[in-house]
Amino acid sequence: MVNRRIAEILRSGQPDESVGIQGWVRTKRESKGFAFIEVNDGSSLANLQVVINQDLPDYEAVLKKLNTGAAVEVTGLLVASLGKGQRIELKAQALKVYGEADPETYPLQKKRHSFEFLRTIGHLRSRTNSFGAVFRVRNACSTAIHQFFQERGFLWVHTPIITASDCEGAGELFSVTSLDLKNIPRTENQAVDYTQDFFGKPTYLTVSGQLEAEVMAMAFSNVYTFGPTFRAENSNTSRHLAEFWMVEPEMAFCDLEGDMDLAEAFLKHIFKYVLSTCPEDMEFFNQRIDDTVLATADNIINNQFERLTYTEAIKLLEKADIKFEYPVSWGLDLQSEHERYLAEQLFKKPVIVTDYPAQIKAFYMRLNDDEKTVRAMDILAPKIGEIIGGSQREERLEVLERRVIAQGMKPEDLWWYLDLRRYGSVPHAGFGLGFERLVQFMTGMGNIRDVIPFPRTPQNAEF
Ligand code: 4AD
Ligand code: MG
Known about the structure:
Layout: H1 6-12, E1 18-31, E2 34-40, E3 48-53, H2 59-65, E4 71-80, E5 88-99, H3 115-120, H4 129-151, E6 155-156, E7 162-163, E8 175-176, E9 203-205, H5 210-220, E10 222-230, E11 243-252, H6 256-277, H7 279-288, H8 293-302, E12 306-309, H9 310-319, H10 336-346, E13 351-357, E14 373-381, E15 385-392, H11 397-406, H12 415-422, E16 428-434, H13 435-443
Parallel strand pairs: 3-5, 6-10, 12-13
Antiparallel strand pairs: 1-2, 1-4, 2-3, 4-5, 7-9, 8-9, 10-11, 11-16, 13-14, 14-15, 15-16
Helix pairs in contact: 4-6, 4-7, 4-13, 6-8
The protein binds 4-amino-1,4-dioxobutan-2-aminium adenosine-5'-monophosphate (4AD) and magnesium ion.
Residues 167-168, 208, 210, 231, 233, 240-241, 244, 246, 248, 386-391, 430-432, 434, 436-437 line the site of 4-amino-1,4-dioxobutan-2-aminium adenosine-5'-monophosphate.
Family: Belongs to the class-II aminoacyl-tRNA synthetase family.
Subcellular location: Cytoplasm
Subunit structure: Homodimer.
């Protein structure tokens, strides 16, 4: 018999159908003459209830093995459930235990564990309701992203992870070294030389695929990247990771308005898609994690984002009737508390702030006529702060060269990037969405470490 996924059985299984399932035991309840187990295979939040009657061969022996965490295969007949909470259940006719889980040592038991505790058992936490829901929603977000761009004719381009350029110019890079460990004598007490460059040239883990995406946009018009990026910033916050995923569309023949319109339509699309494909998981977040999750999704889908310039934002922040920890004044970057005040308290919806001072933004952003500000845009979300950062790019060779030099970089290191302005240059724009921040925003999860399967932070890179 072909085994079926539990989500599909719960949705469309009918009484008297013969089915087989495979999964992990979540709970066991014993009664006189029979027992119930709840089985989960990761396909849905809900478990399938399995009824095991004492006439099953080796009933007593099998029952002893059916502890929380054990891996099982069950075949049997679906029957209408008399119990509350489920439409249908499975009456076992055959049951096989693949791997047992010793109840004395298995760390996940039928109770609520704190997220802090679950972070210490990252290899097992995906078997809980919360992480099951998070990673299904994360998957749905990825699908929605590809669907959005593919439907619009964008090309998904794969940009390198090892690179020689610091796209953001922030100097927060992990360097890459090539080690030939097999030729390092292990017997001697000799320290490994970690200072060798990547085949003789300094290289780093990429902080952004943007510069390479610009290369591709100058041939394919509309492209996007979706891949891992790395930042060696030592920030221990609930919104920063050392390794995170970023989605970066890049559009030729596009200005900042087109960029903002695309970003807004993009976020709306992802929220709609996730609400329609993961309704139970979203309901779960709303009930158990943050009771504003569904209202936030509704807000994103149905309201126009607020758009204002950095200069206007500074004026509003200076007038704010709360005391900020960090100072507010023209020329200083917005801190997360300022971003959250604007989105959460003042406008109560996402806010797009444009035209930041040139000196606090990256070299590639298009200089405005005032020569003080650049065509940048950040999308600030309630609870999260900056979720998207983007800009219209500087397409004028002379201005770009000037900006490269002003930021202490060498034009010759970026010769290929400058070439894009020498040959067939056009106005173009793009943005980067922090994928984990999106998943946080979508699910209401408080800590970014809990929306990526294997978080990498200064404290956490265990496996
Ligand atoms: O604002 P950032 O640094 O922009 C760029 O990298 C541009 N090259 C994007 C582009 O225009 N193509 O980063 C973009 C987004 C931020 O808005 C934030 O959501 C996320 O990436 N981000 C992080 N997410 C998790 N951990 C970190 N350490 C992050 N740093 C940035
Ligand atoms: Mg940014």
